[in-house]
Structures are given as C-alpha cells and as structure tokens.
C-alpha cells in the first residue's frame, strides 16, 4: 500500500489516499461510463481531503455519494457502504491521481449496465449494448 496524491482538474480540491493500485475497476453503467470513473477501493479512513472540502458537491446514488468539484466538475472520489462487498468504502478515481499513469493500472470490469453484479469482474470489458433514451 502506498500514499498517492490527487486533485480535481482545477486544483481546488486536493486529497491523498492510501491505495494498493495493482488493480482498479471500471463499470459500464451509465454514470460510471459518462463520468469516466476508474475506481480504486480503499477504507474510508485511508482517504484524506487536504484542501477544498467546502468546494465539493455531492450526487447521491443507491450505494453512496459521488463527490465533485463545484468549480471544474471533476469527480475525484466517492464514499459509500456495500455490506456484500465489505461495508464502508471510499473509491478513488484513478484518473484524478496526480502521481499515477492510469494506463499502467490493470482494470477489472463490472457489468453494471445489465445489473450483472453476481458475475463479478472480468479481465475484458463487458459487451456494450447502447440503449436509446427517449427525450
């Protein structure tokens, strides 16, 4: 485990997190896909916001809260509680780490688009089947 530094795009929000980055996960659900989230899970106490906490907004989902910078819109991390996966967690967006090249991190893929959580992760992205959304 190593302490990594991260920030939002504009630098107002800064944080550090203790992470084991041999793998991080990507999900194909709409929110994760559209926000380009690449999550590395850790314990809540292993995420420390160093600056800009008052500049964070939240968006609440079924399993937790996604945090975003009100100034630039970047989504650096989320927090939640998944009893089936170990309880309380923090998920760090690897794309917001300043000292890591995301292309060097192995991805594990979830099939959230089809609510296929019981299948676990795959070493390859799940098939993408676009849905037409009526407007």
List keywords for this structure.
five-stranded antiparallel beta sheet, globular, Metal Binding Protein, Guanine Nucleotide Exchange Factor, Chain A, 10 strands, 135 residues, three-stranded antiparallel beta sheet, mainly beta
Describe this structure in words.
The chain has one helix at residues 30-35, and strands at 2-7, 14-19, 23-27, 39-42, 47-51, 56-60, 64-69, 77-82, 87-93, 106-110. With 135 residues, it is mostly beta strands. It has one domain: Beta Complex (Metal Binding Protein, Guanine Nucleotide Exchange Factor, Chain A), CATH 2.170.150. It has a 5-stranded antiparallel sheet with strand order 4-9-8-7-6, with no helix packed on it. The mean pLDDT is 91.
Brief overview, please?
The chain is mainly beta. It has one domain (2-119): Metal Binding Protein, Guanine Nucleotide Exchange Factor, Chain A (Beta Complex), CATH 2.170.150.70.
Shape: globular
Tell me, what is the CATH class? Answer: Mainly Beta
Cα end-to-end separation = 46 Å
CATH architecture: Beta Complex
Structural class: mainly beta
By CATH, the topology is Metal Binding Protein, Guanine Nucleotide Exchange Factor, Chain A
Radius of gyration, in angstroms, nearest whole number: 15 Å
Strand content: 35-45%
The largest sheet has its strands arranged as 4-9-8-7-6
Number of domain units: 1
């Amino acid at each position: 485990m190593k302490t990594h530094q991260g920030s939002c795009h504009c630098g107002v929000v800064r944080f550090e997190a203790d992470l084991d980055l041999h793998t991080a996960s990507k999900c194909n659900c709409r929110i994760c896909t559209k926000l380009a989230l690449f999550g590395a899970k850790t314990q809540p106490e292993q995420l420390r916001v160093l600056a800009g906490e008052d500049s964070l907004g939240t968006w609440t989902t079924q399993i937790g809260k996604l945090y975003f910078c009100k100034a630039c819109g970047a989504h650096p991390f989320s927090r939640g509680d998944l009893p089936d996966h170990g309880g309380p967690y923090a998920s760090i967006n690897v794309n917001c780490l300043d000292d890591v090249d995301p292309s060097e991190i192995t991805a594990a893929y979830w099939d959230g688009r089809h609510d296929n959580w019981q299948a676990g992760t795959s070493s390859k992205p799940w098939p993408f089947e676009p849905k037409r959304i009526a407007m």
